[in-house]
Amino acid sequence: MDLFPWIFEKLGHKDERILNISQNEKIPELDPLHLVVLIKEKKSTIKKKDLPLFGLEDSCYFQHDDRPSLMTKREIRIQVLADLELPESGVIWDIGAGVGSIGLEALRIRPSLKLLSIEKRLGGKELINANASQLSVFPSKVVEAEALDFLEKGNMPSQVKSPSRVILGGGNIEKLLLLDKVLVHITSGGIIVIPLATLEQLGKVLSFLEGKDCITKVSQHLAFRGVDLLKGTRLQPINPVFIVKVKVN
To answer: Which fold has domain 53-248?
Structure first.
């Protein structure tokens, strides 16, 4: 665990200073009117050789500092990967990729797949690439953009066209428009897996898929994690998730 001191000098004055001092850096002369805040930063202790093939702990991933829980939880990730029925080769799209966890674990299972990850959140591309490096996998293309805009522009790199597997994540109101685009691009026999957080989203997706040339299956997943409670353990629920699995004919 490293300590990173922040020094706040003469706050509220016109000549105030805010300094971030590394451990090996000499502290400059300071005004007596100052505050010091020490922030602990835990170094990554991940050893790649000790990682499982899939089902990595959430803590294995770098996450957004302001939204540290904004990722697909391990229990749901495992189910999505199972529903994808990953082929040995081909193209997989991870739309609304978040920190990249599902697509990157798919590459650990099937290294020959070509992965396109799309995430609209600022800093998403950098975060996904950092997680890919940490897991020693290599996405073919990582895009930081609105997925619908990217797909409509028609400048898709040739190596990631025509996916056979698609993860359609995120809670975007454009989900149905994205699903429509995916159905145009996906190959015959391809599989789309759509995690959903609300009943309203589920209803809209199922209504949209009615009459489409595909087979649709729905499941709901609620997991609990044990947390310490005095001398015992209590179960803390993870938000329930609906998963729609679509197999295109």
So the answer is: Rossmann fold (3.40.50)
